Amino acid sequence: MASILNLFDRKKAQAPAPRHFLDGFSIEVMPRTAEKIDDFRALLPPGTRVYIAHVDGTPIEAMVATAARLTREGFQPMPHLPARSIPDRATLDDWLARYRGEADVRQALLIAGGRAEPAGAFDSSMQMIETGLFDARGFARLHVAGHPEGNRDIAPDGSDAALIAALRWKQAFAARSDAAMAIVTQFCFEAAPVIAWADRLRAEGVGLPVHIGVAGPAKLQTLVKFALSCGVGPSLRVLQRRARDLTRLVLPFTPEDILRDLAAHKARHPDFAVEAVHFFPLGGVAQTTDFVRDWRAGGAAQAARA
Questions:
Q1: Which residues pair with 185 in a beta bridge?
Q2: Nearest-5° angle of CA 184, CA 289, CA 49?
Q3: How far is Cα 288 from Cα 293, in angstroms, rounded to an integer?
Q4: Which residue of 81, 115, 239, 270 has the smallest Cβ count within 10 Å?
Q5: Structure confidence at residue 187 (pLDDT)
């Protein structure tokens, strides 16, 4: 019996994930990486949501120009708005007005930002929300950050009480707002911490849908560097195990395992909070979109054979 179960487990692990799990995926770019892409239409399905990361010090003109280009090419730009990089309410209003007027942006990701000290009035995304400017400027969709493996900047002791409390506040705001809201998370490498975190949110009364962050294909060294700088927690062990396997050390890391496990969990639990996948293209936008295309084609081929 044990050998039969082991064979079943191996087949389950090797099976391609359901192709529909990546429907509606999103991806992230920066203005400087976007400049290297001749035409996003050659890489992404029409209407794809493209987040624009606002690294501290990036001119707002570059952010708006990138958003305008994505709109022209038929995509949904979603710029980051980092609270701690915005000096005051007037600047926030100016940025929102530029995004709406020059790029037809109607959605944004609201984050605290990577600065240790605020540049001015805002320390958190909640303070930006409380200004009422997003509603006044016609932003119909607002996403907020989630951290399945904690955030040492917010909670140095590793606890999640402050993170859960902030998400409860945002849940309450969503209930009284006309804006569509969702949580988009830091990237992870393993499904188990994500599943436990999502179940915890539901138990704590946070019902916002989750767009799970996943790292696109990249060299192992690249992923380890980003994972350490971004505070990835327990799922970092996936990379550590791979680093010990000399036969796989030189091969690019691809996220099949976490996607397959999350898709399987979603199939068994349709009410699972994860409703979409958000890719961090740490190894390059083209490499990530190639992976998505091939992964979905594999799922389609499996469905055709069924």
A1: 146
A2: 40
A3: 9
A4: 270
A5: 84
3-state secondary structure of 299: helix
With a CB cutoff of 8 Å and minimum separation 6, the contacts of 243 are 220, 224, 249
Task: Assess contact for 7 and 288: CB atoms under 8 A.
Answer: no
Domains of the chain: 19-295 (3.20.20.220)
Residue 95 tokens read as 């940025």
Among candidate residues 10, 9, 16, the one with its CA nearest the CA of residue 302: 16
Each residue of 127-139: pLDDT tens digit? 999 999 999 999 9
Amino acid 81: pLDDT: 98
Question: What is the residue whose two structure tokens read 């804006």?
Answer: 179
CB atoms within 10 A of CB 165: 11
The answer to whether residues 193 and 155 touch, using CB atoms and an 8 Å cutoff, is no
Whose CA is closest to 144, among 71, 208, 53, 76? 208
Tokens of 258: 């976490």
pLDDT tens per residue across span 22-36: 999 999 999 999 999
